[in-house]
Design brief:
Layout: H1 16-30, E1 37-38, H2 50-63, H3 79-90, E2 101-104, H4 107-113, E3 123-128, H5 133-140, E4 144-149, E5 168-172, H6 184-197, E6 200-204, E7 230-235, H7 237-240, E8 248-251, E9 257-258, E10 261-262, H8 263-274, H9 280-289, H10 292-319, E11 323-325, E12 331-335, H11 342-353, E13 355-356, E14 358-359, E15 370-374, H12 379-390
Parallel strand pairs: 1-13, 3-4, 3-5, 5-6, 6-7
Antiparallel strand pairs: 2-8, 7-8, 9-10, 11-12, 12-15, 14-15
Bound molecules: pyridoxal-5'-phosphate.
Pyridoxal-5'-phosphate binds next to helix 4.
Length: about 400
C-alpha cells in the first residue's frame, strides 16, 4: 500500500482563508441580496496598469509571429526581466548581478519550493503572527517549526535571541498581518545573528513597494552582511496587481553558501529540473512594471490603497480602537474589544455590518485578540465599510 505524506495530518484543521471563504459563502447563501464589504483576503481590486496591459498585448502578438515567437523560456527567468529587476535594486543602491535574480510565478510558490534547498531535518523559525504559509509549508515537509511570538509592546518586531535558533528564519517586512516594518538597526541585528549562527534568512519583501518612510529598508540586501545569509522573496501581486496574472522573483546572492555548497547554484539546478520557466507573455508584462511609466502607474494604484488605509484609520480613530500598520503596509492590525475573540469579532462584523475581515488567530495563536483589515478593497466599499465601523457598535 502507498504511504502518503503523513505530515499532512499535522496541519491545523483548515487553512485560514478557506475557513473565511466557507463562512462568507454560508452567509451569502442565507442572504443572497446583501452586499458584503470585503476587507479580508489581501487580494487587489484595481486592474493591471496600462503599461503592463500594453506589454501583455504586444507579447501575445509576438507569439503569433514566427519571427518573434518564444517557446520554452530560460528556467531561471528571461534575461530582459532579470536585468530590469537588477536595475530596480541598483537604483536603490543594491548591486545585484542579473543572474542572482530568479523569476518565479509568485511568492507563495517560492516560499514552499525554496525549502528544497535545506536538509529535511532542518528547522524553521517563524515570528508570529505570520503569513500562514510559512508554518504550513514546513509542517507538510515534516520540519520542526520554532514559533517565536511577537508582542504589541515590541511593535511586533522581536529582536533575535541566542536561546532561539533555527536553520531557516522567516522575516516578513513590511509585515503581513501586523503592518510592522523593520528599521535598519533591528534588521541588521537579524543579519548579524544569522551570520553568527550560519542560519539562512528567508526575507519576504512582498510589500516593499508600500514603504513610504525613506529610512526604512526595502530590501534585506541594503544591510551589511546580508549577501552571506539571506534569500529575498518578492512578488508583483500587491505591488502591481499580479495576483491573478502571477509573477514574482527571488534573489539569491552568489556568496550564499552553507557546508561549502552554493545555494545560488543549487537553486539554478533546482529550477532547471523542476520548472520550465514562467510564460514569456507574463514576463513581458512584468518587465513593463520596471519601466519609468510602469513605476509611475503602479504607484498611482498604490496611492489608492493608501487612501483606503487612511479612510479605515480615520474610522478606527473615531471609535477609539487601537491599531497599528496602514502607513508603510497595506494592512491594519487592530485590537479586538476586551473579552471578544478574533473569530467572534469576525462573526460580529460579518453578521451585523457585513464587513469581512481576517481574525488574528489565523496568523498564529499570539494573533488572538487582534484582527486584520486589508486596504486592497474597492475604494467605494472601503468608504462604506469605514462608515459602518465608525458607528462603533461592533466594538462594544
Ligand atoms: N508573502 C506574503 C507575506 C503575502 O502576504 C502573500 C500574499 O498575500 C504572499 C507572500 C504571496 O504572494 P503571491 O501572490 O506572489 O504568491
Amino acid at each position: 500500500m502507498t504511504t502518503p505524506n503523513t505530515h499532512y495530518a499535522d496541519l491545523k484543521e483548515s487553512y485560514l482563508f478557506r475557513r473565511i471563504a466557507q463562512k462568507v459563502t454560508a452567509y451569502e447563501e442565507g442572504d443572497p441580496d446583501t452586499h458584503l464589504y470585503r476587507m479580508g483576503i489581501g487580494d487587489v481590486s484595481l486592474p493591471l496598469c496600462d503599461a503592463v496591459i500594453r506589454a501583455l498585448h504586444d507579447a501575445v502578438d509576438d507569439q503569433a509571429d514566427a519571427r518573434r515567437f518564444h517557446g520554452y523560456m530560460p528556467e531561471c527567468g528571461a534575461p530582459f526581466l532579470r536585468e530590469a529587476i537588477a536595475a530596480y535594486y541598483g537604483a536603490r543602491g543594491v548591486s545585484l548581478d542579473a543572474d542572482e535574480v530568479f523569476v518565479s510565478s509568485g511568492a507563495s510558490d517560492e516560499l514552499g519550493d525554496i525549502l528544497d534547498l535545506f536538509d529535511a531535518h532542518s528547522s524553521a523559525m517563524v515570528i508570529e503572527p505570520a503569513y500562514p504559509a510559512y508554518v504550513d509549508a514546513n509542517v507538510m515537509a515534516g520540519r520542526a517549526v520554532v514559533h517565536v511570538p511577537a508582542y504589541e509592546e515590541e511593535g511586533f518586531l522581536p529582536c533575535p535571541s541566542d536561546d532561539l535558533q533555527a536553520d531557516v528564519i522567516y522575516l516578513c517586512s513590511p509585515n503581513n498581518p501586523t503592518g510592522a516594518v523593520f528599521g535598519r538597526h533591528q534588521l541588521q541585528e537579524w543579519v548579524d545573528f544569522a551570520n553568527r549562527h550560519e542560519s539562512v534568512i528567508l526575507f519576504d519583501a512582498a510589500y516593499e513597494a508600500f514603504i513610504e518612510d525613506d529610512e526604512l529598508p526595502h530590501s534585506i540586501f541594503e544591510l551589511e552582511g546580508a549577501r552571506t545569509c539571506a534569500i529575498e522573496i518578492c512578488s508583483l501581486s500587491k505591488t502591481a496587481g499580479f495576483t491573478g496574472t502571477r509573477l514574482g522573483y527571488t534573489v539569491i546572492p552568489a556568496e550564499l553558501k552553507r557546508c561549502g555548497m552554493s545555494l545560488h547554484d543549487m537553486w539554478v539546478r533546482n529550477r532547471t529540473t523542476k520548472t520550465n520557466g514562467v510564460s514569456y507573455i507574463i514576463q513581458r508584462g512584468g518587465a513593463a512594471v520596471f519601466t519609468s511609466e510602469g513605476q509611475r502607474q503602479i504607484h498611482e494604484s498604490i496611492a489608492v490603497y493608501k487612501h483606503n488605509a487612511h479612510v479605515l484609520m480615520d474610522a478606527l480613530d473615531e471609535v477609539g480602537v487601537w491599531y497599528c500598520g496602514g502607513r508603510n503596509a497595506p494592512y491594519l492590525w487592530l485590537k479586538c474589544p476586551e473579552g471578544t475573540s478574533s473569530w467572534a469579532l469576525f462573526d460580529r462584523l460579518l453578521n451585523e455590518i457585513q464587513v469581512v475581515g481576517t481574525p488574528g488567530e489565523g496568523f498564529g495563536s499570539c494573533g488572538e485578540g487582534y484582527f486584520r483589515l486589508s486596504t486592497f478593497g474597492d475604494p467605494q466599499d472601503t468608504i462604506e465599510a469605514a462608515r459602518r465601523l465608525a458607528q462603533g457598535d461592533v466594538f462594544r
